[in-house]
Each structure stands twice: as C-alpha cells, then as structure tokens.
Description:
The chain is an alpha/beta fold. It contains nine helices and nine strands.
Amino acid sequence: MYDNTRWDAATYKLKQTLSYSKLFICDILEFHGPEGTGKTEMLYHLTARCILPKSEGGLEIEVLFIDTDHHFDMLRLVTILEHRLSQSSEEIIKSCLGRFFLVYCNSSSQLLLTLYSLESMFCSHPSLCLLILDSLSAFYWIDRANGGESVNLQESTLKKCSQFLERLVNEYRLVLFASTQSIMQKPSNSTEGPSSAFKHPRNEDIDYRPYLCKAWQQMVKHRIFFSRQDDSKRNNQFSLVLRHLKSNTLKKHFFIIGESGVEFC
C-alpha cells in the first residue's frame, strides 16, 4: 500500500528541485539534448535529492536508476552527497546509498527483460518512487540495424519497453525520468543574455526532432530540452527549457555544474 501523503510531499519537493510547478505522481518526463549538456548531471541532482535524509533536506525515498549508456559514475554521486550533507560520514553515505538501486542494460531486449523482472521489486519496496532511465535512446542505431528495412521491426522492442514502463508508472505510482540524445542539431545563433531568455523562452530555444517510437512519444507528459551556452564568457553555463506538452507552456532556466553538482542560476 502506498503512502500518498508521503508521495505528495516528495513530488512537491521534486517540483522545487526542478523549479517546475506541473510535476505530479505518475508523470513521465523526457530529458532531451545533445551529449555534454548536463542531462546526466541533472539526474544525479535529482537522485541525491531523493535519497538524502529528510533531516538534510532530502526526500528519503528510494530510486531505481537504469544505466544503458554505462556513463553512471558512483563516485560522482557520492561526491554530490558529501557536499550536501552538513556532516558527512561513511555511515550516512551508506544509508543514502541503501535507498539507491543501480541496474545496467546492454541492449533493448535486455532492458525489456529487466523491466519485467523488476516488477516484483516495486511490489516489495513501497518507498521506491522514482525510476530513472539514462538513456532510452542508447540502442536506437543497433535496433535500427537489426530491424532491417521494417520500421515495425526496428521499433518493436522499444515499443514494448515503452508500454511496460507506462504500466509500471501508473500501477506503482512512480515518476519516470528518461534521457534521450538528440541525433541532429540545428546551428545556434542566439546571443541573448540569460535574463532575457529566461523571461521569454521561445520555440527557437527548442531543437527537437522525434525519432523514437510513437508509443514513447505519446506517453511523455513533459519534455525538458538541455543545451550548453555558446558564449565564451558563460562556457560553464547550461540551460533547460521545460515544456508541458498538454498546455504547450514553456519555462527556461539556467544552471551551472560544479564539484557539488547542479546549481540553478
């Protein structure tokens, strides 16, 4: 049985973490952008916020992280936790990591089998509220090659993964964050400063060309577009544009990545 009051408080804090007011239980969010734009760092940021104890401003809930890119860096997560704890100790770090589960997948078929096998875990862990998948697009080119000229065969496994993910989210009242990488990028010619862009996010701030299966496209409720600032004076600054797909509202934020993790500007 799920503690809705606890989840309501957790989602409220996650909203604050993302500076986003439209995040709810059973939401599915896609982090989209080129490599090196801060998507995985933002996932570390969310993970740390969730597994930190309440006494340290965390949510004290469990997180399942599925790594398909083999980019996950446990030492990086530990470093972020150490910076956020008022008094870091091995015991507290171990306690935080006890709420964190990491799974690796090497193919879309293995991802599908993993999702099937993890259902019992959601049943036995009512505090497991956040599911992270980094990234959903990792096997796109392999699946495309294996499927030959048939689009249905190319997308078959990812379609099944998407449908099962949606069922898990709805049945176990999860929030799902999944990253996808942009394949093609349009040239950037924006010279606008942070304050102006923050106040007036535009469709031009978004470079999105859908290429994953329709099953995934249709289940995503919020899409967050990541980019890196081209201005040499702000080369350590990143931006994200949050789009609520139903209302088509946009909101832009800037952040930097330091040793302690993500910091919003």
